Amino acid sequence: DEMISAQLFGKEVLYTAKPVFRDEVPEGWYCYDLCGTDRKPNQPVKLTDSAVVYRIGTVLSPNPLKRPSTLEREVQGQFLMDGRMMTLAEFCREQDLPLPQDPRKYVPRPASPEEAGLFFALPPEKDGELGAIGHVRIDFGSSRTSFHHTWWPRGPQELNTQEFKAELQDVVDELRKSVLKSLGSMRRYCWGHNGEISGGSCCQNYGYVVETERYLYRLRCNPTEGDYQAYLSCFDKQAQTLGLTEKGRQALKDAADPGKDHTYIWYVIDRIDDPKLRKDYEVTLEEAPRVYAGLDKTDRRLGVLKDGIAAVDLAISWNGREWFSDDWAKLDSFKDDPVIADAVSRLQTELDIKPLVGRVTFANGERIGYTDPEEYVNVVKEELPYHATSGFRYETLTDDPEVRKAVDDILHDLYGEENPRPLADYGSGGMTMGGMQL
Description:
The strands form four sheets. This protein has a seven-stranded antiparallel sheet. Strands 8, 9, 10, 11, 12, 13 and 14 form a seven-stranded antiparallel sheet that branches. Strands 16-15-17-18-19 form a five-stranded antiparallel sheet. Helix content is 24%, strand content 28%. Helix 9 packs parallel to helix 11 (401-414). The chain is built from eleven helices and 22 strands. It folds into four domains: 3-95, no CATH class; 109-241; 258-350, no CATH class; 358-426, no CATH class. By secondary structure, it is of the alpha+beta class.
Protein backbone atom coordinates (compact mmCIF):
# COMPACT_ATOMS: atom_id res chain seq x y z
CA ASP A 1 0.00 0.00 0.00
CA GLU A 2 1.17 3.50 -0.73
CA MET A 3 1.64 5.83 2.27
CA ILE A 4 2.89 9.38 2.70
CA SER A 5 6.50 10.11 3.61
CA ALA A 6 6.70 12.26 6.77
CA GLN A 7 8.81 13.28 9.75
CA LEU A 8 7.78 12.92 13.40
CA PHE A 9 10.02 14.01 16.27
CA GLY A 10 12.77 14.41 13.69
CA LYS A 11 12.58 10.80 12.48
CA GLU A 12 11.51 9.51 9.07
CA VAL A 13 8.16 7.73 9.15
CA LEU A 14 5.29 6.68 6.89
CA TYR A 15 1.78 8.03 7.40
CA THR A 16 -1.66 6.82 6.23
CA ALA A 17 -5.17 7.99 7.01
CA LYS A 18 -6.38 4.41 6.79
CA PRO A 19 -6.25 2.04 9.80
CA VAL A 20 -3.40 -0.45 9.99
CA PHE A 21 -4.08 -3.81 11.59
CA ARG A 22 -1.42 -4.46 14.18
CA ASP A 23 -1.15 -8.09 13.00
CA GLU A 24 0.11 -6.73 9.66
CA VAL A 25 2.88 -4.62 11.18
CA PRO A 26 6.32 -6.00 10.22
CA GLU A 27 8.36 -7.53 13.00
CA GLY A 28 10.67 -4.96 14.59
CA TRP A 29 8.62 -1.99 13.36
CA TYR A 30 6.39 0.32 15.41
CA CYS A 31 2.85 1.47 14.72
CA TYR A 32 1.05 4.37 16.41
CA ASP A 33 -2.12 6.40 15.93
CA LEU A 34 -2.20 10.17 15.70
CA CYS A 35 -5.26 11.73 17.30
CA GLY A 36 -6.80 15.13 17.97
CA THR A 37 -8.75 16.51 20.95
CA ASP A 38 -12.19 17.93 21.64
CA ARG A 39 -11.03 21.39 20.61
CA LYS A 40 -8.83 20.23 17.72
CA PRO A 41 -10.42 17.00 16.41
CA ASN A 42 -8.74 17.24 13.00
CA GLN A 43 -5.26 18.31 14.09
CA PRO A 44 -2.60 15.76 15.17
CA VAL A 45 -2.04 16.64 18.82
CA LYS A 46 -1.13 13.33 20.47
CA LEU A 47 0.61 10.07 19.59
CA THR A 48 -0.79 6.90 21.15
CA ASP A 49 -0.55 3.14 20.60
CA SER A 50 -4.17 2.91 19.48
CA ALA A 51 -6.67 5.76 19.42
CA VAL A 52 -10.26 5.10 20.46
CA VAL A 53 -11.61 8.57 19.59
CA TYR A 54 -10.41 11.47 17.42
CA ARG A 55 -8.12 9.23 15.41
CA ILE A 56 -6.64 11.14 12.46
CA GLY A 57 -4.24 8.62 10.97
CA THR A 58 -1.58 6.00 11.59
CA VAL A 59 2.21 6.23 11.62
CA LEU A 60 4.57 3.37 10.75
CA SER A 61 8.14 3.76 12.00
CA PRO A 62 11.33 1.65 12.07
CA ASN A 63 12.16 3.32 15.42
CA PRO A 64 10.21 3.66 18.68
CA LEU A 65 8.56 7.09 19.04
CA LYS A 66 7.56 6.89 22.69
CA ARG A 67 8.26 4.84 25.82
CA PRO A 68 6.19 1.64 26.08
CA SER A 69 5.02 2.65 29.56
CA THR A 70 3.74 6.04 28.34
CA LEU A 71 0.11 6.09 27.19
CA GLU A 72 0.56 9.05 24.86
CA ARG A 73 3.05 11.69 23.74
CA GLU A 74 2.38 15.29 22.79
CA VAL A 75 3.14 15.99 19.13
CA GLN A 76 3.64 19.76 19.61
CA GLY A 77 3.82 20.59 15.91
CA GLN A 78 6.59 18.07 15.21
CA PHE A 79 4.64 16.12 12.58
CA LEU A 80 5.52 17.18 9.02
CA MET A 81 4.41 15.49 5.78
CA ASP A 82 6.38 16.05 2.57
CA GLY A 83 3.56 14.80 0.32
CA ARG A 84 5.53 12.02 -1.40
CA MET A 85 3.63 8.75 -1.88
CA MET A 86 5.70 5.60 -1.43
CA THR A 87 5.42 1.94 -0.49
CA LEU A 88 7.18 0.31 2.42
CA ALA A 89 9.71 -1.20 -0.01
CA GLU A 90 10.52 2.23 -1.48
CA PHE A 91 10.84 3.74 2.01
CA CYS A 92 13.28 0.98 3.04
CA ARG A 93 15.41 1.52 -0.07
CA GLU A 94 15.53 5.27 0.54
CA GLN A 95 16.41 4.86 4.22
CA ASP A 96 18.84 1.98 3.56
CA LEU A 97 16.79 -0.41 5.70
CA PRO A 98 16.26 -4.15 5.17
CA LEU A 99 12.81 -4.88 3.76
CA PRO A 100 10.86 -6.80 6.43
CA GLN A 101 8.95 -9.97 5.63
CA ASP A 102 5.18 -9.92 5.61
CA PRO A 103 4.07 -11.71 8.81
CA ARG A 104 0.89 -13.00 7.16
CA LYS A 105 0.87 -16.50 5.67
CA TYR A 106 -1.99 -15.66 3.31
CA VAL A 107 -2.31 -12.10 2.00
CA PRO A 108 -5.76 -11.18 0.64
CA ARG A 109 -5.82 -8.83 -2.31
CA PRO A 110 -8.78 -6.51 -2.94
CA ALA A 111 -11.07 -7.60 -5.76
CA SER A 112 -11.19 -5.71 -9.01
CA PRO A 113 -14.54 -4.33 -10.22
CA GLU A 114 -14.53 -6.90 -13.04
CA GLU A 115 -14.52 -9.76 -10.50
CA ALA A 116 -17.59 -8.53 -8.57
CA GLY A 117 -20.01 -11.10 -10.01
CA LEU A 118 -17.81 -14.01 -8.90
CA PHE A 119 -18.42 -13.19 -5.22
CA PHE A 120 -22.15 -13.86 -5.37
CA ALA A 121 -24.22 -16.99 -6.06
CA LEU A 122 -23.38 -18.56 -9.41
CA PRO A 123 -25.39 -20.96 -11.59
CA PRO A 124 -24.27 -24.63 -11.37
CA GLU A 125 -22.73 -24.60 -14.84
CA LYS A 126 -20.58 -21.59 -13.91
CA ASP A 127 -19.56 -23.25 -10.64
CA GLY A 128 -18.51 -26.26 -12.71
CA GLU A 129 -16.41 -24.15 -15.07
CA LEU A 130 -14.64 -22.47 -12.15
CA GLY A 131 -13.98 -25.67 -10.18
CA ALA A 132 -16.21 -24.63 -7.26
CA ILE A 133 -15.93 -26.80 -4.13
CA GLY A 134 -18.31 -24.95 -1.80
CA HIS A 135 -18.56 -21.91 0.44
CA VAL A 136 -18.46 -21.08 4.13
CA ARG A 137 -21.26 -18.82 5.36
CA ILE A 138 -20.19 -16.73 8.36
CA ASP A 139 -21.76 -14.38 10.88
CA PHE A 140 -20.53 -12.83 14.13
CA GLY A 141 -23.77 -13.28 16.09
CA SER A 142 -25.50 -10.78 18.34
CA SER A 143 -22.28 -10.21 20.29
CA ARG A 144 -20.55 -9.13 17.05
CA THR A 145 -17.50 -11.16 18.15
CA SER A 146 -18.72 -14.79 17.83
CA PHE A 147 -17.86 -16.89 14.82
CA HIS A 148 -20.77 -18.95 13.48
CA HIS A 149 -20.12 -20.78 10.23
CA THR A 150 -21.79 -23.32 7.96
CA TRP A 151 -20.34 -25.26 5.04
CA TRP A 152 -22.33 -25.42 1.78
CA PRO A 153 -21.02 -27.83 -0.90
CA ARG A 154 -21.20 -26.58 -4.49
CA GLY A 155 -19.11 -28.96 -6.56
CA PRO A 156 -18.15 -32.60 -7.13
CA GLN A 157 -17.48 -34.53 -3.93
CA GLU A 158 -14.04 -35.60 -5.16
CA LEU A 159 -12.81 -31.99 -4.97
CA ASN A 160 -13.54 -31.78 -1.22
CA THR A 161 -10.36 -33.64 -0.25
CA GLN A 162 -8.64 -33.81 3.12
CA GLU A 163 -5.87 -31.68 1.63
CA PHE A 164 -8.38 -28.94 0.75
CA LYS A 165 -10.05 -29.10 4.18
CA ALA A 166 -6.69 -28.69 5.92
CA GLU A 167 -5.77 -25.67 3.81
CA LEU A 168 -9.24 -24.12 4.21
CA GLN A 169 -8.87 -24.35 7.99
CA ASP A 170 -5.45 -22.73 7.71
CA VAL A 171 -6.79 -19.87 5.56
CA VAL A 172 -9.73 -19.23 7.89
CA ASP A 173 -7.42 -19.25 10.93
CA GLU A 174 -5.30 -16.56 9.25
CA LEU A 175 -8.31 -14.43 8.27
CA ARG A 176 -9.61 -14.71 11.84
CA LYS A 177 -6.67 -12.55 12.90
CA SER A 178 -7.88 -9.61 10.81
CA VAL A 179 -10.95 -9.27 8.60
CA LEU A 180 -12.86 -12.14 10.26
CA LYS A 181 -11.88 -11.31 13.84
CA SER A 182 -15.16 -9.50 14.62
CA LEU A 183 -17.75 -7.29 12.98
CA GLY A 184 -15.86 -4.18 14.09
CA SER A 185 -12.61 -5.57 12.69
CA MET A 186 -14.33 -6.34 9.40
CA ARG A 187 -15.60 -2.78 9.10
CA ARG A 188 -12.17 -1.33 9.80
CA TYR A 189 -10.49 -3.78 7.43
CA CYS A 190 -12.87 -3.03 4.57
CA TRP A 191 -12.43 0.71 5.05
CA GLY A 192 -8.65 0.40 5.02
CA HIS A 193 -8.15 -2.15 2.22
CA ASN A 194 -10.48 -1.06 -0.60
CA GLY A 195 -12.13 -4.03 -2.37
CA GLU A 196 -15.53 -2.38 -2.98
CA ILE A 197 -17.68 -4.52 -5.30
CA SER A 198 -21.10 -3.89 -6.80
CA GLY A 199 -24.05 -5.97 -5.64
CA GLY A 200 -25.62 -6.61 -2.25
CA SER A 201 -29.03 -5.32 -1.24
CA CYS A 202 -28.48 -3.52 2.06
CA CYS A 203 -24.98 -2.04 2.14
CA GLN A 204 -21.67 -1.77 0.33
CA ASN A 205 -20.05 -5.20 -0.12
CA TYR A 206 -16.31 -5.84 -0.31
CA GLY A 207 -14.38 -8.62 -2.00
CA TYR A 208 -10.95 -10.09 -1.23
CA VAL A 209 -9.05 -12.91 -2.92
CA VAL A 210 -6.61 -15.39 -1.36
CA GLU A 211 -4.74 -17.54 -3.88
CA THR A 212 -2.57 -20.54 -3.04
CA GLU A 213 -0.76 -22.99 -5.28
CA ARG A 214 -3.84 -25.20 -5.75
CA TYR A 215 -6.88 -23.26 -4.52
CA LEU A 216 -8.60 -19.89 -4.88
CA TYR A 217 -10.67 -18.34 -2.07
CA ARG A 218 -13.05 -15.41 -2.63
CA LEU A 219 -14.22 -13.66 0.53
CA ARG A 220 -17.28 -11.41 0.26
CA CYS A 221 -17.78 -9.11 3.26
CA ASN A 222 -21.12 -7.59 4.19
CA PRO A 223 -20.21 -5.55 7.31
CA THR A 224 -23.71 -4.90 8.65
CA GLU A 225 -25.62 -6.21 11.66
CA GLY A 226 -28.58 -8.54 11.41
CA ASP A 227 -27.34 -10.46 8.37
CA TYR A 228 -24.68 -12.96 7.36
CA GLN A 229 -21.46 -10.96 7.30
CA ALA A 230 -19.23 -13.09 5.07
CA TYR A 231 -19.20 -15.76 2.40
CA LEU A 232 -15.92 -17.53 1.65
CA SER A 233 -16.22 -19.30 -1.72
CA CYS A 234 -13.62 -21.95 -2.53
CA PHE A 235 -12.40 -23.05 -5.95
CA ASP A 236 -9.99 -25.74 -7.18
CA LYS A 237 -7.71 -24.14 -9.77
CA GLN A 238 -6.59 -27.53 -11.06
CA ALA A 239 -10.19 -28.58 -11.71
CA GLN A 240 -10.75 -25.25 -13.43
CA THR A 241 -7.65 -25.74 -15.58
CA LEU A 242 -8.45 -29.36 -16.42
CA GLY A 243 -11.93 -28.14 -16.92
CA LEU A 244 -15.10 -28.94 -15.23
CA THR A 245 -15.95 -27.12 -18.45
CA GLU A 246 -17.73 -28.98 -21.25
CA LYS A 247 -14.45 -30.55 -22.30
CA GLY A 248 -13.65 -31.50 -18.72
CA ARG A 249 -17.10 -32.97 -18.09
CA GLN A 250 -16.71 -35.11 -21.18
CA ALA A 251 -13.31 -36.26 -19.90
CA LEU A 252 -14.93 -37.33 -16.61
CA LYS A 253 -17.60 -39.24 -18.53
CA ASP A 254 -14.90 -40.96 -20.56
CA ALA A 255 -13.03 -41.85 -17.35
CA ALA A 256 -16.18 -43.60 -16.09
CA ASP A 257 -16.65 -45.60 -19.30
CA PRO A 258 -15.38 -49.19 -18.78
CA GLY A 259 -15.31 -49.71 -22.56
CA LYS A 260 -12.51 -47.16 -23.08
CA ASP A 261 -8.78 -47.49 -22.50
CA HIS A 262 -7.53 -45.64 -19.40
CA THR A 263 -4.25 -44.51 -17.87
CA TYR A 264 -3.51 -44.88 -14.15
CA ILE A 265 -0.86 -43.00 -12.20
CA TRP A 266 -0.33 -44.24 -8.65
CA TYR A 267 0.95 -41.70 -6.16
CA VAL A 268 2.08 -41.41 -2.55
CA ILE A 269 2.04 -38.08 -0.70
CA ASP A 270 4.04 -37.41 2.47
CA ARG A 271 3.28 -34.54 4.93
CA ILE A 272 0.24 -33.45 2.95
CA ASP A 273 -0.71 -30.95 5.68
CA ASP A 274 2.51 -28.92 5.37
CA PRO A 275 3.27 -27.27 1.98
CA LYS A 276 6.90 -26.70 3.00
CA LEU A 277 7.57 -30.34 3.90
CA ARG A 278 5.19 -32.04 1.47
CA LYS A 279 6.66 -34.59 -0.96
CA ASP A 280 4.86 -36.27 -3.86
CA TYR A 281 5.97 -39.62 -5.28
CA GLU A 282 4.80 -41.08 -8.58
CA VAL A 283 5.07 -44.86 -8.20
CA THR A 284 3.94 -48.09 -9.82
CA LEU A 285 1.20 -50.14 -8.23
CA GLU A 286 3.85 -52.68 -7.19
CA GLU A 287 5.95 -49.96 -5.49
CA ALA A 288 3.04 -48.13 -3.83
CA PRO A 289 2.65 -50.27 -0.66
CA ARG A 290 6.39 -50.23 0.08
CA VAL A 291 6.79 -46.48 -0.45
CA TYR A 292 3.66 -45.66 1.56
CA ALA A 293 4.60 -47.98 4.45
CA GLY A 294 8.13 -46.59 4.54
CA LEU A 295 6.99 -43.03 5.32
CA ASP A 296 6.29 -41.42 8.66
CA LYS A 297 2.96 -42.52 10.13
CA THR A 298 1.67 -38.93 10.18
CA ASP A 299 -0.35 -37.39 7.35
CA ARG A 300 0.33 -39.50 4.28
CA ARG A 301 -1.76 -40.72 1.33
CA LEU A 302 -1.74 -43.46 -1.25
CA GLY A 303 -4.03 -42.96 -4.23
CA VAL A 304 -4.53 -43.03 -7.96
CA LEU A 305 -4.98 -40.47 -10.74
CA LYS A 306 -7.08 -41.78 -13.62
CA ASP A 307 -6.79 -40.35 -17.13
CA GLY A 308 -5.08 -37.28 -15.69
CA ILE A 309 -8.34 -35.78 -14.38
CA ALA A 310 -9.95 -37.95 -11.66
CA ALA A 311 -8.04 -38.64 -8.44
CA VAL A 312 -8.92 -40.43 -5.21
CA ASP A 313 -7.03 -41.24 -2.00
CA LEU A 314 -7.19 -44.91 -0.99
CA ALA A 315 -4.91 -45.45 2.01
CA ILE A 316 -4.97 -42.51 4.43
CA SER A 317 -2.99 -41.72 7.58
CA TRP A 318 -4.21 -38.54 9.28
CA ASN A 319 -3.91 -37.13 12.82
CA GLY A 320 -2.84 -40.44 14.33
CA ARG A 321 -5.53 -42.51 12.55
CA GLU A 322 -5.06 -44.78 9.56
CA TRP A 323 -7.71 -46.32 7.35
CA PHE A 324 -8.52 -47.56 3.87
CA SER A 325 -11.03 -45.22 2.23
CA ASP A 326 -14.09 -46.49 0.39
CA ASP A 327 -14.61 -43.16 -1.43
CA TRP A 328 -13.54 -44.73 -4.74
CA ALA A 329 -16.66 -46.93 -4.72
CA LYS A 330 -18.90 -43.82 -4.62
CA LEU A 331 -17.30 -41.87 -7.47
CA ASP A 332 -18.50 -42.41 -11.04
CA SER A 333 -14.97 -42.40 -12.42
CA PHE A 334 -13.90 -45.32 -10.22
CA LYS A 335 -16.81 -47.39 -8.88
CA ASP A 336 -17.28 -49.73 -11.87
CA ASP A 337 -13.62 -49.93 -12.84
CA PRO A 338 -12.28 -53.52 -12.51
CA VAL A 339 -8.66 -52.31 -12.55
CA ILE A 340 -9.31 -50.09 -9.52
CA ALA A 341 -11.28 -52.81 -7.73
CA ASP A 342 -8.47 -55.36 -8.23
CA ALA A 343 -5.84 -52.83 -7.13
CA VAL A 344 -7.80 -51.94 -4.01
CA SER A 345 -8.14 -55.61 -3.08
CA ARG A 346 -4.40 -56.09 -3.60
CA LEU A 347 -3.45 -53.01 -1.56
CA GLN A 348 -5.75 -54.03 1.29
CA THR A 349 -3.99 -57.38 1.39
CA GLU A 350 -0.47 -55.93 1.33
CA LEU A 351 -1.02 -53.03 3.72
CA ASP A 352 -1.63 -53.77 7.38
CA ILE A 353 -4.48 -51.29 7.79
CA LYS A 354 -7.58 -52.05 9.79
CA PRO A 355 -10.94 -51.51 8.04
CA LEU A 356 -13.08 -48.56 9.04
CA VAL A 357 -15.44 -49.24 11.92
CA GLY A 358 -17.38 -46.02 11.42
CA ARG A 359 -17.24 -42.54 9.98
CA VAL A 360 -18.46 -39.18 11.31
CA THR A 361 -19.03 -35.84 9.59
CA PHE A 362 -19.75 -32.28 10.69
CA ALA A 363 -21.54 -29.36 9.04
CA ASN A 364 -18.23 -27.57 8.38
CA GLY A 365 -17.17 -30.39 6.03
CA GLU A 366 -14.91 -32.24 8.49
CA ARG A 367 -15.01 -35.98 7.83
CA ILE A 368 -13.24 -38.50 10.11
CA GLY A 369 -12.92 -42.27 9.81
CA TYR A 370 -12.31 -44.58 12.80
CA THR A 371 -10.72 -48.01 12.84
CA ASP A 372 -10.84 -48.43 16.64
CA PRO A 373 -14.33 -49.54 17.86
CA GLU A 374 -13.97 -47.98 21.33
CA GLU A 375 -12.79 -44.66 19.88
CA TYR A 376 -15.71 -44.60 17.43
CA VAL A 377 -18.34 -45.37 20.08
CA ASN A 378 -16.85 -42.69 22.38
CA VAL A 379 -16.96 -39.97 19.74
CA VAL A 380 -20.62 -40.78 18.99
CA LYS A 381 -21.38 -40.59 22.72
CA GLU A 382 -19.59 -37.23 23.09
CA GLU A 383 -20.82 -35.50 19.93
CA LEU A 384 -24.36 -36.81 19.47
CA PRO A 385 -25.98 -34.52 22.11
CA TYR A 386 -24.72 -31.49 20.14
CA HIS A 387 -25.74 -32.64 16.64
CA ALA A 388 -28.25 -29.81 16.21
CA THR A 389 -25.54 -27.14 16.40
CA SER A 390 -22.52 -29.00 15.00
CA GLY A 391 -24.23 -30.87 12.16
CA PHE A 392 -22.74 -34.11 13.53
CA ARG A 393 -23.68 -37.28 11.63
CA TYR A 394 -22.37 -40.82 11.97
CA GLU A 395 -22.25 -43.90 9.80
CA THR A 396 -21.50 -47.31 11.30
CA LEU A 397 -19.66 -49.48 8.80
CA THR A 398 -18.72 -52.56 10.84
CA ASP A 399 -20.84 -55.70 11.14
CA ASP A 400 -19.66 -56.21 14.73
CA PRO A 401 -22.95 -56.63 16.67
CA GLU A 402 -21.55 -55.20 19.92
CA VAL A 403 -20.43 -51.98 18.23
CA ARG A 404 -23.70 -51.58 16.33
CA LYS A 405 -25.77 -52.13 19.46
CA ALA A 406 -23.59 -49.77 21.54
CA VAL A 407 -24.17 -46.97 19.03
CA ASP A 408 -27.91 -47.70 18.89
CA ASP A 409 -28.02 -47.61 22.71
CA ILE A 410 -26.52 -44.10 22.66
CA LEU A 411 -29.12 -42.88 20.14
CA HIS A 412 -32.05 -44.27 22.17
CA ASP A 413 -30.60 -42.88 25.39
CA LEU A 414 -30.46 -39.41 23.80
CA TYR A 415 -34.26 -39.48 23.60
CA GLY A 416 -34.74 -40.98 27.06
CA GLU A 417 -35.59 -44.45 25.80
CA GLU A 418 -34.15 -47.93 26.17
CA ASN A 419 -33.02 -49.80 23.10
CA PRO A 420 -35.68 -52.51 22.65
CA ARG A 421 -33.38 -54.74 20.59
CA PRO A 422 -31.20 -57.32 22.38
CA LEU A 423 -27.69 -58.08 21.18
CA ALA A 424 -28.95 -61.17 19.35
CA ASP A 425 -30.87 -58.94 16.92
CA TYR A 426 -27.55 -57.45 15.78
CA GLY A 427 -26.02 -60.80 14.88
CA SER A 428 -25.00 -62.00 11.45
CA GLY A 429 -27.85 -61.57 9.00
CA GLY A 430 -29.69 -59.18 11.31
CA MET A 431 -30.46 -55.56 10.68
CA THR A 432 -27.85 -53.28 9.16
CA MET A 433 -27.48 -49.77 10.52
CA GLY A 434 -26.59 -47.14 7.95
CA GLY A 435 -26.02 -44.16 10.22
CA MET A 436 -28.02 -41.42 11.86
CA GLN A 437 -30.72 -39.55 10.00
CA LEU A 438 -32.28 -36.63 11.86
